[in-house]
Amino acid sequence: MTTLKPHAPRAKVGTELILATKPFATDDTLRSWWVILSTLALLVIAFAGTFAPLPYAARIASSVIAGLLLVRFFVIYHDQQHHAILPRSRIAGGLMRVFGILALSPSSVWRSSHNHHHNHNSKLRGSHIGSYPIMTKDQFRRSPRGKRIMYLFVRHPLTILFGYVFMFLQGMCIYPFFNHPREHLDCLVAVIVHLAISVTLCMLGGWQALVLTQLIPHFVMDALGSYLFYAQHNFPGVSFSDKDGWTYEKAAMESSSYMRTGRLFGWLTANIGYHHIHHLNHRIPFYRLPEVMAAIPELQAPKTTSLWPWDIVRCLRLKVWDVETQRMVGVRGL
Asked: Which of 194, 154, 171 is CA-nearest to residue 109?
């Protein structure tokens, strides 16, 4: 008697794959408050260490740790703005609006630009809002010299490294306010508050307090945050599409990376490395993303990158989209 082998389950695609993630898009109120309050407590300790009468090396270490903890809290802020955690809590909403101002990422700008990014991720047209600009090879060749220089400046490693100035202070505060002052009044508030904190720190503890408590933590948070956002959508194997070939699920799976990190950096970056899943369903709380990847086989073979130096170099070399070869390339030889 012949025994029939059971057929392998059909792989989920498109809307079916998105719907498979829906059971995980539920907020655990106690857990969400725990991650917020515990991270805040660690931040208070780290910032206290920058002021404490400790050896200078210990104060510098506290400053760097504060910057890394700010990265974690920024991703928590990002989740709350997506309504993935504590969507109905006015207290959480108010707390995150305050953090957005302190982090030079006001809520009005973050929500509008980041929601646009999710809805237009990997499109060759319209994806520059809330993301790094993308030119095709032909567009780059045909563009005026000044436009090419500005395009390469925005994507330059030093611009990303100094995200504090270029991406956050200028890009998310000064530029939006001067273009739409009524819509982005909180951008002006963020700049004023930032300057007021800087002056106060100088008055209380001199230039060392300014450097250790304000400049280094912001530099670390914004440099790492700018690079993470870059590498999540600019990596070897990334795919870009015209609007006719674009789908939400394809953009999540082929144009959003899974960044391999160790446990410590996974915790510090609040699982933002599971970016393909986040783009598939942004209502999933960050602390459930590993659970989703383990439960759904179709999500277990994503396009990957890492924070190892060679992977960082490979990502930063990518500049323009080559339509003929369907891959990102550098500008050498153009």
From this structure: 171
